[in-house]
Amino acid sequence: MALLEIDSLVKHFPISAGFFGRKTGDVKAVDGVSLSVEDGETLGLVGESGCGKSTLGRCLLRLIEPTSGDIRFEGEEITGMDFDRMREMRRKMQIIFQDPYASLNPRMRVGEIIGEGLQIHGIADGAELKDRVMALLAKVGLREEQYGRYPHEFSGGQRQRIGVARALALNAKFIVADEAVSALDVSIQAQILNLLQDLQEEFDLTYFFISHDLRVVEHVSDRVAVMYLGKIVEIAPADRIYSDGQHPYTRALLSAAPVPDPTRKAKRIVLQGDVPSPINPPSGCSFHPRCPFAQKICSEVEPQLEFDGDHGVACHIFGPGATVKPN
């Protein structure tokens, strides 16, 4: 059963210029994304920096208002919800931010940070609030005596544990993990990833896991979606993406991931040119200017996400929707 469904989601940021702020264009950060997240699964979202991953994650929680499209959580449409109703819904939908320091208020003690949501929603106060925060600290591997400390007194890994505890405080069902381990050392990354997996199993959580690190996504995800210039170009179970990625962009990303075997040399696919601007994306397939297999149809017709079972690919040349053969 799908816990979250999005249909044709769009987020364009207007560009203004001149003294009167006349609109001159749009940054097409998210451009027609449709997908679903099943109850209890981890859906990984990968892609280069600037492809719209974080914008999509924040749109799902309406931290950024979508330009158009539909978002349904537990079958209920949330894009048109008023402030009070959306505030109630956010008890079930939380986020772990990328920067474990910038996302914590430096003027608040850890106990206040974790307990703030409980107070805002009127769930707990006084001694009960402190008891619940203490339990959350223990759950994420922190000590009770750290309750009264400030964020600057913690390491990066400990600060991210605070962020995890804050996300869990309201008994959320759906958590967006936005590059949750990218700012941490490798050894600390493993600790946080293992913590997230343990908590998922204990509390039946559903994760939307955003990362540019394909090996991290492989470790935690049930399914993986690949994003390029605001669009999903491939989505499939994690094992199929990593063993049989079809889209040329997916293959290039996989070839760039380091192989933990010094005796094995990976064949690197080097993409030519720069990532196109989301202000003026290419016609047809947005990847065609950098694709080594591109043909005439790729620059003229935008490919749609075509599925073979649970494997979807948006490509004219590879995958179930292929209409031409590679050169």
**CATH-defined topology:** Rossmann fold
Task: Write the CATH homologous superfamily.
Answer: P-loop containing nucleotide triphosphate hydrolases
Oligomeric state of the chains? Answer: single chain
Count of distinct strands: 12
**What is the correct CATH architecture?**
3-Layer(aba) Sandwich
Helix content: 25-40%
Notes on the protein architecture:
With 327 residues, the protein is of the alpha/beta class. The chain has a single domain, classed as 3-Layer(aba) Sandwich (Rossmann fold). The protein has 10 helices and 12 strands. The chain has an 8-stranded mixed sheet with strand order 6-7-8-3-9-10-12-11, with helices on both faces. A 4-stranded antiparallel sheet has the order 2-1-4-5. Strand 4 and strand 5 form a beta hairpin. Helix 3 packs across helix 4. The longest helix has 18 residues.
